[in-house]
Amino acid sequence: MHTDPSISVEGLRQRYGDFEAVAGISFEVAAGELFALLGTNGAGKTTTLETLEGHRAAHAGTVRVLGRDPHRERRAVRPRIGIMLQEGGFFADLTVAETVDHWRGFTPAPRDRDEAVALAGLSDKAGVRVRQLSGGQKRRLDLALALLGRPAVLFLDEPTTGMDPEARRTTWKIVQEVVADGTTVLLTTHYLEEAEHLADRLAILHRGRIETSGTVEEVVAGYGDRITFHMPDHLQVAELPELRGARPDMTVTGGRAVAVYTVNGSGLQAGLYDLLRWADEERVRLDGLEARSASLEDVFLRTAEGADR
Ligand SMILES: Nc1ncnc2c1ncn2[C@@H]1O[C@H](COP(=O)(O)OP(=O)(O)OP(=O)(O)O)[C@@H](O)[C@H]1O
């Protein structure tokens, strides 16, 4: 069954004075999907999110949230979306439970207080004052407040920045439960692992443009598998063999010269075989040898580098 997307962005452009921060981007997020916007610093993620949240009108292009213009039809859209605010909005002297109660006063048909506190994994902190919460716990309280009105669409701007790995995993679990419940989520993040873990689909933004988008598998496919090893001291890169048509590159990692082959298609196993046979015949030791599929990090770094060239 075809349903209308919860979020659609077509040819969006945003300017600050003469500077074009978003230079004509298009994407759609289906109902119940989690879509991640990744990007280098200043790529335009927050500007895009703020436009979708209705804070600013599109300079050009069309933006729809739940079928409506989030800026012009703000009154209709706002009650149906959740925005995770930065922690600035809290009163430090209120407890977690009091904070939720306070926000319930502004929210149409809010969740029950204890349900919201439990959803954010803060039940054992309900009586604790906000000033005594850790940074990660404050972010989770932000999340509880964003979820108070059972939003159809949830916007999360870097929801786990500054969290330790355990707090981040707890937050991921909460977000996954929200998505399993049918909520559409648009998330920005600097953590590629977060996108890998959570996103149904993602887009990588660079200087206001979408450089690549799709599922993690789609985005990573075509970037090739990699074979790497420490450059043997007595060899030049030109003396290394070609592996199924792939020539080696040199990079420096952790102060060491590293040879890198990018092998396309199904050439990883065969390329590795050729390399090991060559090393055996030439009596070369391949220290630090690794063979692995491309990661989202490889794509991210190369997308940013490639677009800068
Ligand atoms: N109010 C503003 N006035 C002028 N320029 C702005 C304003 N807000 C953002 N910019 C510029 O627009 C560009 C995009 O900013 P934006 O905050 O959307 O990027 P981002 O992808 O969220 O970045 P980051 O990952 O660093 O948070 C940046 O170059 C930024 O300096």
How would you describe this protein?
This protein is of the alpha/beta class and 309 residues long. It folds into 2 domains: 7-220, Rossmann fold, CATH 3.40.50; 224-293, Alpha-Beta Plaits (2-Layer Sandwich). The protein is 31% helix and 26% strand. It is built from 10 helices and 13 strands. The protein has a 6-stranded mixed beta sheet, sandwiched between helices. The protein has a 4-stranded antiparallel beta sheet with strand order 11-12-10-13. A 3-stranded antiparallel beta sheet has the order 2-1-4, covered by helices on one side. Helix 6 (165-180) links the parallel strand 6 and strand 7 (184-189). Helix 3 packs across helix 4 (113-119). Adenosine-5'-triphosphate binds at residues 16, 19, 21, 39, 41-47. The site of adenosine-5'-triphosphate has 11 residues, from strand 2 and helix 1. Keywords: Antibiotic resistance, ATP-binding, Nucleotide-binding, Transport.
Q: Could you tell me the radius of gyration in angstroms? A: 24 Å
How many distinct folded domains?
Answer: 2
What is the strand content? 25-35%
Straight-line N-to-C gap: 43 Å
Unreliable residue stretches: none
Query: What is the number of helices?
Result: 10
Q: From the 3D coordinates, which CATH architecture of the largest domain would you assign? A: 3-Layer(aba) Sandwich
| CATH top level assignment of the largest domain | Alpha Beta
* Average pLDDT level: 91
**Element pattern in H and E:** EEEHEHEHHHEHEHEEHEEEHEH
Biggest sheet strand line-up: 5-6-7-3-8-9
Which topology of the largest domain does CATH recognise? Rossmann fold
